[in-house]
Amino acid sequence: PKMDDFKKFLVEKNISKDWAEVYQTKTARTAEQAANQPNFRQLYDMYKTPTYYLLDDKKRIIAKQLSLEQFDDVIAAKLKK
User: Fold this and answer.
1) Number of domains composing the chain
2) Are residues 29 and 51 in the same domain?
3) Which domain holds residue 56?
4) Closest by alpha carbon to 62, among 40, 43, 78?
5) Would you call the peptide bond into 50 cis, given omega within 30 degrees of 0 as the criterion?
6) 52, 66 Cβ separation under 8 angstroms
7) How far is residue 66's CA from residue 68's CA, in Å, rounded to a whole number?
8) What is the pLDDT of residue 1?
9) Do 48 and 10 share a structural domain?
10) Are residues 19 and 50 in the same domain?
11) Cα–Cα–Cα angle for 20, 70, 57, rounded to 5 degrees
C-alpha cells in the first residue's frame, strides 16, 4: 500500500520522470542489512531528505552535502570558468 501511495504522490505532484525517486520498503532494508550489503544511502552518502547533488553535464556528481548557499558558490565558480 505505501508504494501505491508513493506512486500516486508522484503523479499528483507532477514530479518529472527525469528525477530519480527512491523508495525502499522496511523489508528490503532489513534484508540488505541482514546480508551485510551496502545500500543506496551508503553508496551515495544520503542520510537526510531531501539530499541535493550538483551534477555536471554528463550527470556526474560534482558536489554534495552542501548548504544551498554553498551550492550557489560552487555554481558561481563553475560559471566563471
Assistant:
1) 2
2) no
3) 44-81
4) 78
5) yes
6) yes
7) 6
8) 60
9) no
10) no
11) 45
How crowded is the C-beta side of 47, counted as CA atoms within 13 Å? 5
- Positions of E strands within the chain: 53-55, 61-64
CB-CB neighbours of 10 under 10 Å: 15
CA separation for the pair 71, 69 (Å, rounded): 5
Phi, then psi, of 55 in degrees rounded to 5: -110, 150
Whether residue 53 is found in the same domain as residue 34: no
Q: What is the mean pLDDT of each run of 10 residues along the chain (81 residues)?
A: 80 77 84 89 78 85 87 88 76
Same domain, 32 and 51: no
37 and 3 within one domain = yes
Residues 2 and 39 in one domain: yes
* pLDDT computed for residue 31 by the predictor: 92
